[in-house]
């Protein structure tokens, strides 16, 4: 009689595989370094895709097995489609990951001066512990579009010669009444998330000109980028932790970096689709935006972009006139991995986990049958038949996997894009990596798990269900 036992994957890893793992993760760290925003991730993905033979969908009048096409939605979504041997209407294999991460967005009118310092106001994006963002170097990334339509890309703080920005925290000598009596989520309040962006006043001949530090900052911005204060209104600028992804631990078995939720799944799903031949069913790697704020908006999965690009694929490969029922049939016969991370068992706070059902670093891919919160609210709950078929695929390919849940019942919880995929009748389950310090400026992942994700996504794209 078989019993259930998950084990640490490193124990079964020989030197050759360990070398492959470390080499793979070097490229992964590079992807994290150049893709700190969703726009940057899209740019990086398209650069790699074109090197692997993918072309814009507009270049295809007809799609044949082996064709490689890509879609871009508002520079924040990218879809890679590798056309399979069977007709697209027979179903698609979707691997869907999100490329947005918690951060600080600049407000539309952010710049002001106080006490001869220039500051910028922000609004945090996604679920963060606000106090983690103070007194640390931050980089400014994003895009400014002027009234004339000129686009200016900005990335300040990543090069060693760049200045960085920071939120000034209160010293422990004076915080007894102002901060220590606050609850943890108010140690630093939302309106206190303001960065220092300048400190040097600029001399003006006109004595009526006030806020000379702010004026100095605006002058610098105009000299370097030809943008002025009103251009912040049509900008998408965000603060992210400055610095590069690093190995963690004397054994160098983990990657520590900002944004691994969920770029760990984005990168591995990209590499997986690059490394497969013509599959039986069409394979789609879909990188989405806005997951951290509920998948809303035109670039979130709550939009109908999945229907749009799937329809575009169908009309390029059918012998009969396209109709809505073909699209519905295709989606209903499709399978998806909602590729998102899970909470790894934290040795310092084990009490919030159900250890028997918690995922661990180094144990491979995490299959999460359902997420949500108390009572499974707002979750997709995968069918038993689908879970069984994935078990078979991963076991047949000797892929290390485990199960996981997001903490104890009623402890908290969270959701993913899975429910939006399931809305179309697509067989869907969450499948990703375990992380420590999720949603922090420095998340931790096992290198072994990163490599197993890549192997699992390859198998999903190509193996029979």
Written description of the protein model:
It is built from 9 helices and 22 strands. The strands form 4 sheets. A 9-stranded mixed β-sheet has the order 1-2-3-13-4-14-20-16-18, sandwiched between helices. It has 2 domains: 9-101 and 258-462, Aminopeptidase, CATH 3.40.630; 105-241, Aminopeptidase i, Domain 2, CATH 2.30.250.10. The model has no long low-confidence stretch (mean pLDDT 95). It has 465 residues and is of the alpha/beta class. Helices cover 25% and strands 24% of the residues. It has helices at residues 15-34, 38-51, 212-225, 260-274, 305-315, 324-332, 384-396, 418-422, 447-462, and strands at residues 55-56, 68-73, 77-82, 92-98, 103-114, 117-125, 138-145, 151-156, 194-198, 235-241, 246-248, 254-257, 282-288, 335-338, 342-343, 365-368, 372-373, 401-403, 413-414, 427-432, 434-436, 443-446. A hairpin with a 5-residue loop joins strand 11 (246-248) and strand 12 (254-257). The longest helix has 20 residues, at 15-34.
Q: Secondary-structure blueprint of this entry?
A:
Elements: H1 15-34, H2 38-51, E1 55-56, E2 68-73, E3 77-82, E4 92-98, E5 103-114, E6 117-125, E7 138-145, E8 151-156, E9 194-198, H3 212-225, E10 235-241, E11 246-248, E12 254-257, H4 260-274, E13 282-288, H5 305-315, H6 324-332, E14 335-338, E15 342-343, E16 365-368, E17 372-373, H7 384-396, E18 401-403, E19 413-414, H8 418-422, E20 427-432, E21 434-436, E22 443-446, H9 447-462
Parallel strand pairs: 1-2, 4-13, 4-14, 14-20, 15-21, 16-18
Antiparallel strand pairs: 2-3, 3-13, 5-6, 5-10, 6-9, 7-8, 7-10, 11-12, 12-22, 16-20, 17-19, 21-22
Helix pairs in contact: 1-9, 4-9
